[in-house]
Specification:
Layout (H helix, E strand, L loop, with lengths): L11 H13 L2 H8 L3 H15 L4 E2 L6 E2 L1 H25 L5 E8 L6 H12 L3 E8 L1 H9 L5 E4 L7 E8 L1 E6 L10 E6 L4 H12 L4 E7 L2 H9 L5 E4 L7 E4 L11 E7 L6 H12 L10
Parallel strand pairs: 3-4, 3-5, 8-9
Antiparallel strand pairs: 1-2, 5-12, 6-12, 7-10, 7-11
């Protein structure tokens, strides 16, 4: 290819500013975060628009709303910045051996967990990882008992050191072929008493005085998933469970809105293992790459 035909190169600093504008909602607030004036941020965004030859912002007063092209570029910006930051950190740190025992709930084992493992593998390639998949309550017990080093969990615990890896909407789900009847009590697929999604579902239905009946109960998320795919009824779970075999039910179907669920990463404060602390710090620094699930 002739060099004259090559596309222009995106400036990572401009992309970083774009991410700050998108998260803060204004040029002024973004400027405060990165140490630039409002006009300086505006000039950066104008340069970025010239490079991509597309408008990135809608003109709606002080708040800056992204155009469709802006939202598309934002997705690329986050990925490019994550790769840049990972590369710099990986090359700066020393190669280390060590072992890490990480616990994860079933519902993010196919979504969030692979992203976590991928980041750790890039930045700590010689680290040996042992993965435990389980329910959040049992993972928290294992963490306190020293059986695992880090735990992804929906549970809060002030005695541990942690941060939110991802926020995910909680939604009503049913099988793609399941028919919902508004004249009958909602047929619920529920977890056991310790399930946070069971509490979310029952609280929401009772607040709206919507009748329900339990058609299936399981102490395992895999049991809930099997009953859901079999078309036995409706369940409340995080967006992480959404796939081609299930569909989301909303207020248009007569179902009340549910609260978001937080997936935390927890570590024991007294952990002395340097590899555990290194892994925890790297995941904390890269938490924005794990994003927020949206409906």
């Amino acid at each position: 290819m002739n060099p004259i035909d090559l596309p222009p190169t995106l400036d990572l600093e401009l992309l970083r500013t774009l991410v700050h504008v998108a998260s803060s909602g204004s040029f002024a607030d973004a400027g405060t975060q990165i140490g630039r004036s409002q006009s300086g941020v505006s000039q950066q965004m104008q340069r970025l628009e010239q490079i991509v030859q597309s408008p990135l912002f809608l003109k709606e007063g002080r708040n800056k709303q992204l155009t469709e092209q802006g939202r598309q570029l934002l997705r690329y910006a986050r990925e490019l910045l994550a790769l840049n930051d990972d590369a710099v950190q990986a090359l700066r740190q020393r190669m280390v051996d060590g072992q890490l025992r990480l616990g994860s709930p079933h519902d993010v084992a196919d979504t969030l967990l692979p992203q976590v493992l991928s980041r750790l593998n890039r930045l700590m390639p010689t680290l040996q990882m042992e993965i435990r998949i389980g329910r959040s309550p049992s993972l928290m017990k294992a963490l306190h008992a020293g059986e695992i080093d880090l735990a992804i969990s929906t549970r809060e615990d002030a005695s541990l050191e942690g941060f939110i890896l991802r926020r995910s909407p909680t939604v009503w789900l049913c099988a793609g072929h399941f028919l919902v009847s508004t004249s009958q009590p909602v047929p619920l697929i529920l977890g056991d008493e310790s399930s946070i999604f069971r509490r979310y579902a029952l609280d929401a239905l009772e607040r709206r005085q919507i009748p329900w009946r339990q058609v299936h109960n399981s102490s395992s998320p895999l049991g809930v998933k099997a009953a859901l795919r079999a078309g036995l009824g409706v369940t409340a779970r995080s967006m992480e469970l959404v796939g081609p075999e299930v569909r989301i039910l909303g207020e248009q179907d007569g179902f009340p809105k549910l609260p978001e669920i937080n997936y935390y990463l927890w570590m024991r404060p007294q952990s002395l293992n340097p590899h555990v602390r290194r892994a925890f710090k790297l995941l904390q620094e890269g938490k924005r790459t794990f994003g927020q699930q949206k409906i």
